[in-house]
Design goal:
The structure holds 2 protein chains of 2 kinds.
Chain A: H1 13-27, H2 44-54, H3 65-71, E1 75-76
Chain B: E1 2-3, E2 14-19, H1 28-43, E3 49-52, E4 60-65, E5 81-85, E6 96-99, E7 104-105, E8 111-112, H2 113-125, E9 127-128, H3 153-163, E10 188-192, E11 195-200, E12 203-207, E13 215-218, H4 219-222, E14 232-236, E15 241-246, E16 249-254, E17 257-258, E18 264-265, E19 280-284, E20 289-294, E21 297-302, E22 307-308, E23 314-315, H5 316-319, E24 329-333, E25 336-341, E26 344-349, E27 354-360
Parallel strand pairs in B: 2-3, 2-4, 4-6, 7-8
Antiparallel strand pairs in B: 1-9, 5-6, 10-11, 11-12, 12-13, 14-15, 15-16, 16-17, 16-18, 19-20, 20-21, 21-22, 21-23, 24-25, 25-26, 26-27
Classes of the chains: A mainly alpha, B alpha+beta.
Chain lengths: 83, 367
């Protein structure tokens, strides 16, 4: 899964799937049919940046431990941004 | 606070709700009460009214479900997604769904149904998620205690922008937006390099000397390890540390970090072991002494020698005549001590050793 990673933290495949699902549910990340370039605004990095900005985290566009930890927290299912 | 695209809202003030089914975690009357109380959070500050109906289609249909439950936005089992709701509109509009794979409760065990419902009903009325960590509409669940829920100011401003203010006057909930309310209790104040911190319950206001507006911040978002409702705080400019007191413990903060080996017990500073708490503390730069107020007495601590001065405690009333016999909070600025006692603030001149002005506690917020 093309998710930019920040630090040496070893994310498992399952972690990355969770992160992608989180961004799809709350930040309108669209599925990416194989082989088709995404519009820049809909890349995983862009959505990670949106989420990091929303929660006041350091905005890197990469999945790091702090961002992933926040994704684990129990929360409301309504998206944070978008339609 | 944020709104849904096109600022969706109800075009009427009288709304209906219907509870379609129940969770087995709570008794029916507990569920009814939680939802009723959750609606009252919003009707208290707006002209909105909520009426429960027991049949037919209500504006806000409430139900418990698991995984895929009919709206193509499946829940995900225990934890994770707790509930969701739809913005105002026909059909699903306004409806609120709760994940019955969670353990719902009416206290801190499991997830508090009242708190989650109040949040979801904010969506039902047109509020989107807020970035303010202290707001009810912040997307992440935080248990905020069993009693005395107060709708945070961020949410009050958001919902009132949609529906206007409540018709009742003197709503106690406006107190936090330091409007004309006369009493804001401060439990501890201190100066940290550029800011004056006003600590109260689980928030603190950061007031920059050059700014008019204070910034409201959740205490635990800066210092997660600190308890809420700090008793007292002071800054020691010599060591560049801020000390915070709660009960018999004291924490030392270096910027936003808690110094190693803290918290310590206050008796290690020289207080008698039986002392239960400190009401207020202030460091007086010119004398290098820190004054501690507890009950009707106060102590003087020599920061350089790191010992309690002999001849203390003394009676507050004897040294600081006129400020009353207890101190809620105190801080020093430009040669004046500002004593807070209930709704009043006494400006005491260290030089002339007398009170020169009496102000309202929240006058610093231009109330």
């Amino acid at each position: 899964i093309p998710i930019p990673l920040e630090d040496s933290h070893e994310f498992t495949e399952k972690d990355l799937q969770f992160a992608e699902r989180y961004l799809r549910t709350h930040y309108d990340l669209r599925p990416n049919p194989a082989g088709i370039m995404r519009k820049s605004g809909n890349t995983v990095a862009a959505k990670l940046r949106e989420m990091q900005a929303f929660f006041g985290l350091e905005v890197t566009g990469k999945l790091d431990e702090e961002t992933y930890e926040l994704m684990q927290k129990p929360r409301c299912g309504v998206p944070d941004v978008g339609e | 606070y944020n709104f849904f695209p096109r600022k969706l809202k109800w075009s009427k003030m009288n709304l209906t709700y219907r509870i379609m089914n129940y969770t087995s975690d709570l008794r029916r009357n507990e569920v009814d009460r939680a939802f009723k109380k959750a609606f009252k959070v919003w009707s208290d500050v707006t002209p909105l009214n909520f009426t429960r109906i027991r049949s037919g289609v209500a504006d806000i249909m409430i139900s418990f479900g698991t995984k895929e439950h009919g709206d193509f936005y499946p829940f995900d089992g225990p934890s994770g997604l707790l509930a969701h709701a739809f913005p105002p509109g026909p059909d699903y509009g306004g409806d609120a769904h709760f994940d019955d794979d969670e353990v719902w409760s009416d206290d801190s065990k499991g997830y508090n149904l009242f708190l989650v419902a109040a949040h979801e009903f904010g969506h039902s009325l047109g509020l989107e998620h807020s970035r303010d960590p202290g707001a009810l509409m912040f997307p992440i669940y935080t248990y905020t205690g069993k009693t005395g829920f107060v709708l945070p100011d961020d949410d009050v401003q958001g919902i009132q922008e949609l529906y206007g203010k409540s018709i009742t006057i003197n709503s106690p909930l406006t107190c936090f937006n330091y409007s004309t309310s006369k009493i804001l209790l401060f439990y501890a104040v201190t100066r940290n390099i550029k800011y004056v911190f006003f600590l109260s319950t689980r928030f603190f206001w950061r007031l920059h000397p050059q700014m008019v507006e204070a910034e409201l911040v959740l205490l635990k978002s800066f210092w997660p390890e600190l308890p809420n409702k700090i008793d007292a705080a002071y800054e020691n400019p010599i060591k560049d540390l801020v000390f915070m007191f709660k009960g018999k413990k004291v924490w030392a903060l270096n910027g936003y970090d808690i110094v190693e080996d803290f918290p310590k017990k206050i008796y290690e500073m020289g207080f008698p072991k039986e002392m239960k708490r400190i009401d207020a503390a202030v460091h007086v730069k010119d004398t290098g002494k820190t004054l501690f107020f507890t009950g009707n007495k106060y102590w003087s601590y020599d920061e350089e020698a790191e010992v309690m001065e002999a001849g203390y405690p003394r009676l507050i009333e004897e040294e600081f005549t006129g400020i009353g016999d207890k101190v809620d909070a105190v801080y020093e600025r430009n040669g004046y001590l500002y004593f807070f006692n209930g709704p009043l603030q006494f400006e005491y001149s260290i030089w002339s050793q007398r009170i020169v002005r009496v102000l309202h506690t929240n006058s610093l917020f231009w109330c």
